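pinned: reference chain
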Amino acid sequence: MAYELHYWPTIQGRGEFVRLALEAAGAAYVDVARGPESSGQGMPAMRRHLHDGKVTHPPFAPPFLKDGEVLVGQTAAILHYLGPRLRLVARSEQARLWTLQIQLTIADMVTEAHDTHHPVGTGLYYEDQKPEARRRAQEFCSARLPKYLQWFESILVRNTAGSRHLVGGRLSYADLSLFQLVEGLRYAFPEAAKQALATTPGVVQLHGRVAALPRVAAYLRSERRIPFNEQGIFRRYPELDLR
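pinned: its structure tokens
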């Protein structure tokens, strides 16, 4: 049975971290909201799960994953669930918790990147909060972005199994998510990201190795990969690319 991924159909967003794991593992899945309504998919199908009063444990918002009777929301929780099933996490409990910790740290950075263009409120347009966005972006680009990347670099160096992966000696969902994070930063903050990544060669090399994985490379070339745009988490506003 194919996994059912529910996420907004026109943006990469947080759902892309899940898509990458499914694609890298060669798993069968349906990107429900992008499917035809005539076959029971599309946005109405996603909304039904969000608003069905009979669901005992409803997700707060997309992304969420349906696997038979299992319904799980939140990107990190989805990947924690999928990791063992897709063989994208080590077997030991310690390694699984460490992988989850890394993923949650990635999620923190994603939120901070998003908040550069929506620092006051998500219900307001970017144009309604430009002064605050510029101030938030200044702090993010000059302090937070390099601090996060230096941490990822440090745990790569400390990995006792070698610096090719974040956890142990094989690919995990955390590696895939760090790849996506770097992709997003390079899109939204090309100058600030370039400067910070110049001091984190291990992160850059990991990004390149993930991009070269046959299934990932095929996915990146396919129409399934939604291009970055200014409706997603990572948005390119040149005035916010501050160093």
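why pinned: The domain at 93-240 is CATH 1.20.1050.10 (Glutathione S-transferase Yfyf (Class Pi); Chain A, domain 2). The two ends are 48 Å apart (CA to CA).
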